Structures are given as C-alpha cells and as structure tokens.
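Let us walk through a complete example step by step. Step one is to write down the protein sequence. Step two is to encode the small molecule, zinc ion, as a SMILES string so that its atoms and bonds are unambiguous. Step three, shown after the inputs, is the structure prediction itself.
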Amino acid sequence: MLKWISNMRAWVIEKIGPFDGKNLVLREMPEPFIHEDEILIQVLACGVCHTELDELEGRAQPTFLPIVPGHQIVGKIVALGERVSRFKVGDYVGAGWIWSSCGSCSFCQRGFENLCPEFKGTGKDVHGGYGEYFKIKEAYAFKLPTYATYEFLAPLFCAGSIGYRALKLTHLTDGEPLGLIGFGASNHLVLQVAKYLYPHSPVYVFARNPQERELALALGADFAGDIGDPPPTPLQALIDTTPVWKPPFYMLRYLQPGGKLIINAIRKEDKDRNFLLELAYERDLWLEKEIKTVANITKQDIEEFLKLAEKMQLRPEIEIYSFEEATKALKDLKDRKIRGAKVLKVSS
Ligand SMILES: [Zn+2]
Ligand SMILES: [Zn+2]
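Step three: the predicted structure of the complex.
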C-alpha cells in the first residue's frame, strides 16, 4: 500500500557553519516516497546526538544540503512498499545510524557492514528523523522493545548501540577494571550495561562536569574523577567519547599491559593534537597496549543491544524537548547542559 504524498514538517540543515540556531530551520517538505522494499515511519521521537552538531558545523559533512538530520528514530509504520514482508502497518519500529550498506562487499560479507565503502549514515547521507516522517529499507529497521515508552527507547539507537559496540571491542572479562572518559548520552548507558554484563568489574568515570560525575556515581560508578585524575587501580580498558586528543592519550599510562583504548568518536578536534608529541613509547604504548576506533554500527550490534536492553530493562536518563525546540536541544548540547540523553518528541 502506498501512501498518497503530502507535505510534512522537518528540521533541515540549510548551510554548514558554526551552529547559531539559524542554520537548522523548520520547513515544509514532501513526505518521503517509499520504494518497494521500504517502510514509511511516522516519527514519534528522535534522539539528539552530538553528530548533528558535527554535521551542522562541518566536522562530519552531510552528503547533500538541505538535509534532515537525526539517527535515533522511533515511530510507527504508516505505509509499506509492496515487497515488504517483515512488518505491517501499525508496527512500532526504530532505526539507527546505519541506513544501508551494499550487502555484497568483503566487509558486508564478513559482518563488518559498518566498514562498507557504500555505508550510508541516517541523517547524513539520507534524510533522518528530525521530521514527521522517515523512510528506510525494512532490512535496516528494528522492532521496538515494549518494556519502556518510546521516548526512552530513542537513545538506544545510537548512544546505546554504538556504546555497546565500543564495550564489545574492549573484550573485557568480568572483574577487569574499565574506565570511561566523558559521560554524555553514550557512556551513561555503557556504564549501566558494563555493570550488568561484568558485575565484578569496577567502572571508573572521568568527566569535567561535576554534574556528570554526580550522575555517574548515582548510576553505580565505583569512582568519578576529573579528566586527568589517576584511576584507583590500573585499567584493562578505556572507552573515550570526548572530541579531543589529550584525555584518552594521556590516560594510556594507566592501562595495564595488554590494555585497550577504544575511541568512540566520529572525529577529533585539531586544537590539542600537539599533545600526541608528548607520548612516551615505553610508558604509554609498550607491553601490547592497543588503540582502536569505533566506526559506525552494524545491524547485528543494534539487534543484540535491543535484546540486552530489554533483558536488563535499561532506561536512559532523558531530557525531552518538543519538536519545535530542536535548536534549543542542540544549543544545550553544545553548551554541555547534559544529563544523560536528549530526545525530541516529534509527534504523539
Ligand atoms: Zn549518534
Ligand atoms: Zn558493503
């Protein structure tokens, strides 16, 4: 059944430059037209991610302009392409950063869709969820868990699932100490997941903002210090979500032999990269320490993570903004007014 095309309201990135609240504008545009293998989703909520600021300000350039950003989407199916078989109209589904991959390259065939040269990021290479309607191929949509209301589920689609990918890449075993650098939307979920999967592992949080440290302790962190503080014990793994170089690389000295630094960031700012010249090989890298970055996400990561979230009844700390308040939500994110994750309530 194809839905008759009409207009919708959507926030679009009009031009790249410092985010001043004016380069993201609310406008009328046609509802997405769905192809035979696609579903049309009425967006109920969309999580707000730092990547939207990176897109707006040009650190992660969208492929075209104007574009609707947003990649933590939950909603209800209102129309289906004629070859869609997994879903029906009325189903509640979600979508994340992976909008599509080619499915046939060597990366896709080995389960590394996230590294596919044809990877399309939702809200960056195709229109995303800061609009009343959004479309995606059925293969890249996910049935929503039912344990929480939809506003709480939106942050699971990037902050949660990419954080989960980062945690998997640590190959942590229960009892080994984990450090988290930065405590925004992603690491506040990683903390809770790590505590569930590795109940005997101490988790230490390092964040500049005292409110973030307070939240970390309230959510079960064993220690919360400022960035640069030494951890109570050497670490087996560190997950970094900051946009800068010094915090994670400075902390390499606190990794145990064989320890891993996982960088969960789409980009790093140039301003403090000179710090890399201060690295000392023996102190910071020798003894088989590893550094790995997290790029994108696979369908399997999201599937596994949604199951895990349901099993542990994972509930993000959220701040809800109305659809009209999208620029305020991003401004607050930019000003680091953060407590957990921010969510735009698009429609109800
Ligand atoms: Zn994101
Ligand atoms: Zn591919």
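Step four is interpretation. The radius of gyration is 20 Å.
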